[in-house]
Amino acid sequence: MSLIMELPKIMEESRKAYEEIVAATDQQAFAITEIIGKASIDYERFENIVARGDNVRFMKFLMEHRDLKGKIDLIYIDPPFFSKNNYRVEIKLESNKTKKIPMISQRAYYDTWDKGLQEYLRMLTIRLLMMKDLLAEKGSIWLHLDWHAVHYVKIIMDEIFGEENFINEIIWHYKSGGASKRRFARKHDTLLFYSKSKDYYFLAQKEKSYNRDYKPYRFKGVKEYRDEFGWYTMVNRKDVWILDMVGRTSAERTGYVTQKPETLIKRILESCTVEGDICADFFGGSGTLAATANKMGRRWISCDIGNLATIHTHKRLVQEGAEYLIYEEQKEVDDQATGKIGVDISLSESHISDMDILRVELKSYLPESLEDIPVESKYLHIIKEIIEEDPLQFVAYWSIDYNYQGDINRPNAYFCKDNEGIETIYETIGLEFGDVGIKVVDIFGNSSFTVVKNKEMRKCT
């Protein structure tokens, strides 16, 4: 039977699964594990969110425990494309102690489906049904795919959101990618733009439209402009967008495979949202939606099941000064392996005031198990060598909460690894310090946490 004939069955099975999920009694599936910035002042109210865990459970959690049903103004998702590829990211480690370290290939995510396109479409359909529940009446949803599956998904989107609510098919054209002698080069992705209702928000944006031969038309009532290329008019933006991918030397590049450019998301947000609106991405990847929305004064939610995706998003947002909550799926919190963190913490009297000086030095980090490291077995001997010689090479991010209350990590300082390495010493001055919580996230996305009691700190005079 052809796939087109199976679509009604896929739709029926997906709707039944969705209804069972919505009807099920579920305990609070996600918990706050970290609060970044001023979000700690009143974290019970809505704040920006980075979540790690299954997006189905997270969407149900948002509806039942964060009262967000029908309140999200824009949803953008960049799900797997049904490319049948296993995506990897290359990790470059450098150490003065360990020489000639080869590039290490790490698993990012799988886009392979044992039961074929039918399985992929069921996965996506269940999630689209839940997204419709979350979407505001004036809201819109943008689905980012390519040639592999977009034509089948368009039919499913028509069924869920209604053919009458299909607004645009946007073509994103780029230069990157391969070529073939057997076909035209594939140089575009497709974005499907749907609304929840006819009362959706949209503000048309303007773009340059160059005159034929770049010469002035001089039509009555038509305002013309001139730049270094020639004459042009300003028209409403068209449905083909020519934008570069994230280049290897781009400042926004995180190193995460399949990262999308902020210019693409900016075009969507400036057309379909206003400041203060809530935007969400439930296949968050490297956090491009969150980073762009944060810059534009929108509230945002980003969820991904992958450890690697979450750490890329976390590092990116911390470095940009964003304020947000980190939620993790409860089973992930309970079952999470904790690596060994070596830290030296001391308190000493200040000679110029009655305050104390807190000094924290990250000395070492050891993953709980090599089984937590998502690399091929051929790299494990290199990993072991680096662990013995230079273990801080594996630290992607670490933070300090010097008044840890025993429940949620509220960092006062955080440090991210960059091309120059990572800072390992922190000093601050204050009247009183409590217990110190130290969190370390390694380059593979594994998270570890340790607490040093105030009475256990080394006292210096």
**Helicity level, as a percent range?**
10-25%
User: What's the CATH first level of the largest domain?
Assistant: Alpha Beta
Query: How does CATH name the architecture of the largest domain?
Result: 3-Layer(aba) Sandwich
Unreliable sequence segments: none
- Compute the average pLDDT: 88
How many domains, in number, for the residues? 3
Shape: globular
First-last Cα distance: 81 Å
Biggest sheet, strands in spatial order?
1-15-2-14-13-3-6-8-7-12
Radius of gyration: 25 Å
Number of helices: 9
Oligomer: single chain
SSE layout and pairing:
Layout: H1 3-23, E1 30-36, E2 49-52, H2 55-65, E3 72-77, E4 86-91, E5 104-110, H3 116-134, E6 135-145, H4 150-161, E7 166-173, E8 188-195, E9 206-210, E10 225-226, E11 231-236, E12 240-242, H5 262-272, E13 278-281, H6 288-295, E14 299-304, H7 307-319, E15 324-329, H8 330-335, E16 340-349, E17 356-366, H9 380-389, E18 395-401, E19 413-416, E20 425-430, E21 436-442, E22 447-452, E23 458-460
Parallel strand pairs: 2-14, 2-15, 3-6, 3-13, 7-12, 13-14, 16-23
Antiparallel strand pairs: 1-15, 4-5, 6-8, 7-8, 9-11, 10-11, 16-17, 17-20, 18-19, 18-21, 21-22
Helix pairs in contact: 1-3, 2-3, 3-4, 5-6
Explain the overall architecture.
A hairpin with a 4-residue loop joins β21 and β22. With about 450 residues, this protein is an alpha/beta fold. The chain is built from nine helices and 23 strands. The mean pLDDT is about 90. The protein folds into three domains: about 300 residues, Rossmann fold (3-Layer(aba) Sandwich); about 35 residues, no CATH class; about 120 residues, Sandwich (Immunoglobulin-like), CATH 2.60.40. Helices cover about 25% and strands about 30% of the residues. The radius of gyration is 25 Å and the shape is globular. The protein has a ten-stranded mixed β-sheet with strand order 1-15-2-14-13-3-6-8-7-12, with helices on both faces. The chain has a four-stranded mixed β-sheet with strand order 20-17-16-23, with no helix packed on it.
